[in-house]
From TrEMBL:
Domain DEAD-box RNA helicase Q, first and last residues per copy: 4-32
Keywords: ATP-binding, Cytoplasm, Helicase, Hydrolase, Nucleotide-binding, Stress response
Gene Ontology CC terms: cytosol; ribosome
Name by which UniProt lists this protein: DEAD/DEAH box helicase
UniProt xrefs under CDD domains: DEADc (cd00268), RRM_DbpA (cd12252), SF2_C_DEAD (cd18787)
The Helicase ATP-binding domain, residue ranges: 35-205
GO biological process: response to cold
Length: 523
């Protein structure tokens, strides 16, 4: 069967260029079904479980149909929470990278005056929570009469949170000449009534059937890491577990190439597979992997489709996939024929909520593991070397070296000689120049929300200097720094949180008066 590509769906070249840059090789089921229908002009009810790529499913066609600024808001997207509004906006910024469109997220918890100022300058697409959007409508700041697209994202969640009246009030502000796109994981009666009341009679209901997600024979674990330690964390895991056959998954083709290059430089027996490789290259790599001539295969989701290799002991999610279904497909490469398999996933603090979604949807338990210490690696290698020595002694193949050992015995203690030989073997088997005993682990970090972003030209170096100058907080207290278009998130050691908020809030960073608070809600 021919692989579906984004270029088959009718999107314009600017959107396709942005999607390619994001690293997505092919559309998810909901994207493949919904995008052409939206481009044809129909109202759509999209029903699919959380984690299937719904933002791109509505965002790509809406942005693709954008005809340039008209001086009015042309699209409004409603989400149930502030965190989801930020997340949706951030993805739409990436999808619209090559399009001249102005986006703005609006939600409670941020000064409304700043949002009013931005809106008065002219915005094409608004992503917001119902309460804040309605507030701005009542202040005569948001005018939805020219809206061409109205999107209700996670509609069932908005109804559960009691937003039905706000939503109806907002819909009534929108012009009748619009496309209405409603996305929901479930379809309760309230959603059906809403759709019947406010959507066109020829609206298309697209439901992606929830696949059975069976992972019962697979032991699933996760490691909480810092982004900068991702590669070293992988090396530590491989050095301790020493899997005989493992598939390592990356999200993008470039990610595969970079990881393979880094692993090969450290002596791992590894090759990569992704969509840019020819069919012959992919077949040859897969043949070598099946025959046991490769220990590790690094692949994208698309390239790994159809891989049927027995005795894969480990699947490692070096990066999380685009959707939950892909996670299940990935880890299903191990634990076959009723054998037990092991699946490891590397996640940063920012990705932790996605991991909890995977647990919920797959009805499985993903247990936490600590990143191996240098001592853990040493003891694992020591046991392995000891077992190999014992096996060699039992086979008596070593006897031709007895004269050499006797020669060394005249000059050195044979226990010291054995230890020296083991040290040589250990040195060759260690893939990384480990310096710190423990890395990663962000469980003692608190995530802070800051009202500065890329638009203020802030960078991590300036942020660290600002923290140090104003709150006497050092870089060792700071974890991940995620700078988005208009906001930032910073992981901070628990002991430094109060000092930062007390001493930095209200002061200017890159010309903007900073507001800093603990991030709440889902992410």
């Amino acid at each position: 069967m021919k692989e579906m590509k984004f270029s088959d769906l009718g999107l314009n070249s600017d959107i396709l260029k942005a999607i390619d840059g994001m690293g997505f090789e092919e559309p998810s089921n909901i994207q493949a079904e919904v995008i052409p229908v939206i481009l044809e002009g129909f109202d759509v009810i999209g029903q699919a479980q959380t984690g299937t790529g719904k933002t791109l499913a509505f965002g790509a066609p809406v942005l693709s149909k954008f005809n340039g600024s008209q001086g009015k808001i042309s699209s409004i997207i409603l989400t149930p929470t502030r965190e989801l509004a930020i997340q949706v906006n951030d993805e739409l910024v990436r999808v619209s990278k090559y399009s001249r469109i102005k986006l703005l997220p609006v939600y409670g918890g941020q000064p409304i005056e700043r949002q009013i100022k931005a809106l008065r300058k002219g915005i094409d697409m608004v992503v917001g929570t119902p309460g804040r959007v309605l507030d701005l409508i009542r202040r005569n700041v948001i005018d939805l009469s020219g809206v061409k697209f109205l999107v209700l994202d996670e509609a069932d969640e908005m109804l559960n949170m009691g937003f039905i009246d706000d939503i109806e009030s907002i819909i009534q502000e929108c012009g009748s000449d619009r496309q209405t796109l409603l996305f929901s994981a479930t379809m309760p009666n309230e959603i059906k009534k809403l759709a019947k009341r406010y959507m066109k009679s020829d609206a298309k209901h697209i439901s992606i059937v929830k696949n059975a997600m069976t992972v019962s024979t697979i032991n699933q674990y996760y490691y909480e890491i810092k982004q900068k330690d991702r590669f070293e964390s992988l090396c530590r895991i491989l050095d301790v577990d020493e899997p005989t056959t493992a598939i390592i998954f990356c999200k993008t083709k470039r990610g595969v190439d970079e990881l393979v290059e880094s692993m090969q430089a450290r002596g791992y027996n590894v090759e990569g597979m992704h969509g840019d490789m020819s069919q012959n290259q992919r077949m040859n790599t897969l043949r070598r992997f099946k025959e046991g001539n490769l220990e590790f295969l690094v692949a994208t989701d698309v390239a790994a489709r159809g891989i049927d290799v027995e005795n894969v002991t480990h699947v490692i999610n070096y990066e999380l996939p685009q959707d939950i279904e892909s996670y299940v497909h990935r880890i299903g490469r191990t634990g076959r024929a009723n054998k037990e398999g092991i699946a490891y996933t590397l996640v940063t603090a920012r990705e932790y909520m996605t991991l909890k979604q995977i647990e919920k949807v797959t009805k499985s338990k993903i247990k936490r593991k600590e990143i191996p210490s240098i001592d853990d690696i040493f003891h694992s290698k020591y046991k392995n070397i000891l077992n190999r020595v014992k096996e060699t002694l039992e086979q008596e193949d070593y006897k031709k070296f007895v004269p050499l050992a006797a020669e060394l015995d005249e000059e050195f203690n044979l226990v010291d000689v054995a230890a020296a030989l083991m040290n040589i073997v250990y040195g060759k088997e260690i893939s990384f120049d480990y310096t710190e005993d423990r890395i990663g682990g962000e469980s003692n970090y608190v995530r802070l929300f800051l009202t500065v972003g890329r638009m203020d030209r802030v960078n991590p170096k300036e942020m660290l200097r600002f923290f140090s100058d104003n709150a006497d907080v050092h870089k060792e207290d700071i974890g991940n720094i995620d700078i988005l278009e208009k906001f930032s998130f910073v992981d901070v050691a628990e002991g430094a949180v109060n000092s930062l908020i007390k001493n930095c809030s209200g002061k200017k960073l890159c010309g903007r008066k900073l507001k800093m608070e603990v991030s709440t809600g889902r992410r």
